[in-house]
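$ ./design --mode recover --in tokens.txt
reading tokens...
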């Protein structure tokens, strides 16, 4: 995870870049985001319980019904949803100890 100091250092670097350098960085970051998303995708399977934040900042829960290259389909109590893989997190099943 980046610290605030790391983020400030990156901001200083980006301020000193010209437009072509910034475009190259954007392209490189896009590739890294796609790679990380694909790695994340491999950790999910149909039937997994997931959660994500909706556009209205409401935490939603659902069950994966289909997995695509960049999105997953899931069923919720509010109907079906399609969510980008980078937005979802797995819900760990809570086991009650007696």
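writing sequence...
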């Amino acid at each position: 995870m980046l610290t605030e100091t790391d983020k400030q250092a990156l901001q200083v670097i980006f301020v000193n870049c010209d437009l072509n350098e910034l475009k190259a960085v954007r392209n490189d970051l896009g590739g890294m985001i796609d790679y990380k998303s694909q790695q994340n995708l491999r950790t999910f399977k149909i039937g997994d319980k997931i959660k994500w934040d909706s556009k209205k900042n409401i935490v939603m829960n659902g069950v994966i019904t289909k997995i695509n290259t960049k999105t997953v389909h899931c069923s919720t109590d509010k109907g079906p949803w399609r969510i980008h893989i980078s937005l979802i997190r797995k819900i760990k099943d809570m086991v009650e100890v007696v």
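exit 0
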